[in-house]
Amino acid sequence: MRLVVTGGLGFIGSNFVRMVLAERPDWTVTNLDLVTYAGNPANLSDLAADRRYRFVKGDIGEPGDLARAFEGGADAVVHFAAESHVDRSILSAEPFVRTNVLGTMRVLEAARAQGRCRVVHVSTDEVYGALGPDDPPFTETTPLNPTSPYAASKAAADHLALAFARTHGQDVVITRCSNNYGPYQFPEKLIPLMITNAIEGKRLPVYGDGRQVRDWIHVADHCAGVLATLEKGRAGEVYNFGARSERYNLDIVSRIVAMLGVRPELVEHVADRPAHDRRYAMDAARAERELGWCPARTFEQGLADTVRWYVEHETWWRAVKDGSYRDFYRQWYEERGS
Ligand code: NAD
Ligand code: TYD
Fold this sequence. Notes:
Blueprint: E1 2-6, H1 11-23, E2 28-33, E3 53-57, H2 63-69, E4 76-79, H3 86-91, H4 94-113, E5 118-124, H5 149-168, E6 172-177, E7 180-181, H6 190-200, E8 204-207, E9 213-215, E10 217-218, H7 219-232, E11 238-241, E12 246-248, H8 249-260, E13 267-270, H9 285-291, H10 299-312, H11 314-321, H12 324-336
Parallel strand pairs: 1-2, 1-4, 2-3, 4-5, 5-6, 6-11, 7-10, 8-13
Antiparallel strand pairs: 9-12
Bound molecules: nicotinamide-adenine-dinucleotide and thymidine-5'-diphosphate (TYD).
Nicotinamide-adenine-dinucleotide is lined by residues 6-7, 9-13, 32-36, 38-39, 59-61, 80-82, 84, 99, 103, 122, 124, 154, 177, 179-180, 186.
């Protein structure tokens, strides 16, 4: 298997690349990543000497960069690259449309030019919109009803991916997953922000009443689902992933406070996010039935492991939070970028 991964220096992509190279010894991986603020070469620095791994610095929106990533041929592409943070999409939607919509179209075109090349398009539960407290979880047939510019750009990308499958008979499969947490998550997202702020003795900003619900899944369980989709998913299908772990934001923050033994007064309710989706929940029955997938970790186990990871990897997140990770690695990716 000659695999191209886009966005492999980000949170989920880096966990996926490491997992694939450990579990599929005869595969090669080319990682195409623009190294935006969210792309950190430190996330995969342990692979520097692995001859099965190739890094290409480039933009999925640029056909020439995609051509360099696909040089020598590819059997499949797993497409993670995206602008991924809702709050940033509220400040400026343009990078989201550019990368998530136009970029996805270019990835689809580049794969199509290969002939036989499967595309796994990695999407999110946020395309379905928000659930009420008593609604059943989202299934793959729930209509798309995105709220934020981020979710809208991902929904547009999903429509394009399915349109390419139908129109061109292209081998495309979509995964939609709930909120991930785990090692190497950028500390702008809820769980790593709260863990690192707590360690630093900083305030823990909870949006609104903190009674919003997310359905949390450990990143390793999501990556196993993406790999199962790549190997067993039906072309033209969508697979939902989630771990039946609905939790209130405030309960998660309180748990982190207790685990780290910090003052509960650090928790501060701040202005709510505009049009904040109240609840997400996923029905992953199709993935369980067709792919033989199921999550291996409970939320409590996974959160404890994740808190420990951040405690033990202070150098990693401090460099991200003070911005020095960008200076330190500028030379790294200039040397390696082809
Ligand atoms: P991330 O923000 O941590 O990483 C994104 C990566 O994409 C970075 O390495 C960045 O440098 C790269 N990138 C951005 N724009 C690019 C471009 N134009 N060309 C090439 N590379 C580019 O994101 P993540 O949390 O790892 O999410 C990965 C994917 O999974 C996204 O598509 C996201 O929508 C989806 N997803 C995320 C979650 C979650 O909870 N984080 C849940 C479900 C789905
Ligand atoms: P986030 O990690 O940004 O993921 P998403 O918006 O994609 O679900 O946020 C998870 C939840 O936590 C969401 O309901 C917003 C909330 N939140 C806070 O209350 N405070 C924060 O500082 C952040 C970043 C998020």
